[in-house]
Design a protein that fits this description.
4-stranded mixed beta sheet; 17 helices
């Protein structure tokens, strides 16, 4: 029995619904907004902000302020304490813990039953629907999916209430039938010690017929390397001959692509990027030939956008965005996040349908001297430097040196290489030239070395980034080191550990 063909039949209706994204984007989004307002009109937040009288987008924009986590933190904590009908109807029992870009060490994002079903799980379904559309020969359901997850703990010791990685909440609440198609076991998937979990996942999965992978590229690579150690094989397709796709998200795939292509040499291997955050499942790469992702418009998320050049300006709705501009994303969701600045920045490549690339984060950039270097610049620059020098980057972070003892200012990069370049200085110069080509502001500040000196690269020892995460209790799950920062606290800690 070809189970994948059965899945195609089951998903046929959803594929027809997704086709509406091509030319009905505004209508889909207006419908989502009306639905969210109707659901939450009797909550404390809904009554305060006149949801019952809010009939269209203009009234919504007028009555509801833009929020960061700090503005909603008090209400979210009350929800964590068990209060009902605060930001979303009923009692919310699950909270996704995320490091994020706020002033706090952690954020706790509410995950309502509606948000879990209509956004997070629906987003995962949409990924599979689009993959099967693009790959008519797929047999992914005839084997197992290796799905990585984090861990969770009780929330304030309230009955049935959990706080932890979103992936752990998804695994905890997943339909038991899905467990027939996935590895590892639920018990292993929810272990908190990543190093123990990594070994157990590898041992449980290596003798299964794994056809697909899902997870964060950095942590999945660590698990796959353990599989190779245990099996003694050279390439992953020797372990799993029917492996066909990696659904990845959480961090940019560019720094890891070459390592995956060295590990998996099969011409039948596919890679599909997803945009699934603790706050919601927002997008998926619907065309293998296009790195841009399709924005999911009917999954109980209403989107607004603020031009990055003026983050104090009013948000605009999706139907007013322009291609080629950087926007900070603002969301309203079925988990009770209202006009919430998620912290990510995106750039639209198309508005029919709405397709975008993640360009960075509102607080993950370097703009110490007016250079406005964003993560997208860094990823493209590193990919180019690796291609030119044969190097492979595992992890990196960068921050400004405001002035050294010779009154010199520059960008300082700490890079952990899977394959170091033959000449680190040549790699640095190549990266620097490419960044100037990509970013006119950076180029202007580098002009004749007047404002900025050439960038500096410090080569990290192996496992430096993992050791830093471990020191903070963040090894595994969806945790990651910020790529770019205007501050030096993180990079200085890494340099101090680089011994």
């Amino acid at each position: 029995m070809n189970l994948t063909n059965i899945a195609r039949f089951i998903f046929k209706q959803r594929m027809q619904e997704l086709e509406r994204h091509l030319n009905e984007g505004e209508a889909l989004q207006r419908k989502v907004l009306a639905h969210l307002l109707e659901c939450a009109k009797d909550t404390e937040y809904g009554r305060k902000h006149l949801f019952d009288a809010t009939k269209d987008y203009c009234y919504f924009a007028k009555n509801v302020p833009v929020n960061t986590y700090e503005e909603l933190k008090g209400d979210i904590d009350r929800m964590r304490q068990g209060e009902r009908d605060v930001l979303w109807p009923g009692r919310v029992k699950w909270f996704a813990k995320s490091s994020g870009t706020t002033n706090d060490k952690s954020k706790f994002i509410p995950v309502s039953p509606e948000g879990l079903k209509r956004n997070h799980y629906q987003g995962g379904t949409d990924v599979v629907v689009l993959y099967l559309r693009n790959n008519p020969q797929s047999r992914m359901f005839d084997g197992r999916g290796l799905i990585l997850g984090g861990s969770h703990t009780p929330n304030y010791n309230l009955p049935d209430s959990l706080v932890g990685d979103l992936s752990a909440i998804l695994i905890e609440n997943i339909n038991p039938l899905v467990n027939l198609f996935r590895v590892p076991s639920k018990q292993t998937a929810l272990l908190s010690d990543f190093e123990v979990k990594r070994d157990r996942i590898a041992r449980e999965a290596m003798n299964k017929n794994v056809t697909n992978l899902s997870g964060v590229p950095s942590w999945m690579l660590s698990v796959l390397n353990r599989v190779m150690e245990l099996t003694g094989k050279t390439h992953l397709e020797e372990v799993w001959p029917n492996l066909e796709v990696f659904f990845h998200g959480g961090v940019a795939f560019t720094p890891y692509r070459e390592q995956y292509e060295q590990l998996i040499t099969s011409p039948n291997m596919h890679y599909m990027e997803t945009y699934n955050a603790s706050e919601g499942f927002f997008g998926v790469q619907d065309d293998p030939a296009d790195k841009a992702m399709l924005l999911l418009l009917d999954n109980d998320v209403f989107y607004e956008f603020i031009p990055v050049e003026d983050l104090t300006s009013d948000p605009i709705p999706l139907w007013a965005v322009e291609t080629g501009r950087n926007y900070a994303m603002v969301i309203s969701t079925a988990c009770g996040l209202w006009r919430y600045m998620i912290g990510d920045t995106v750039k639209f490549t198309s508005t029919n349908p709405y397709k975008f690339v993640i360009s960075g984060r509102t607080k993950s950039f370097i703009n110490a001297f007016g250079e406005e270097l964003i993560v997208d610049n860094a990823e493209q620059g590193l990919a180019y430097a690796c291609k030119k020098t044969g190097a492979v980057v595992s992890e990196y972070t960068a921050a400004p040196v405001f002035m050294d003892n010779k009154a010199k200012c520059r960008h300082q990069w700490v890079i952990e290489f899977a394959k170091a370049p033959a000449d680190l200085a040549d790699f640095a110069a190549t990266l620097d030239r490419k960044l100037q080509e990509l970013n006119s502001d950076y180029e202007a500040k580098r002009f004749k070395d007047i404002t900025l000196q050439p960038l500096e690269i410090i080569e990290a020892r192996q496992n430096l980034f993992n050791d830093w995460l471990r020191s903070r209790g963040k090894l595994g799950g969806q945790h990651k080191v910020p790529r770019l920062s205007n501050e030096r606290n993180i990079i200085d800690e890494l340099i101090g550990m680089n011994k």
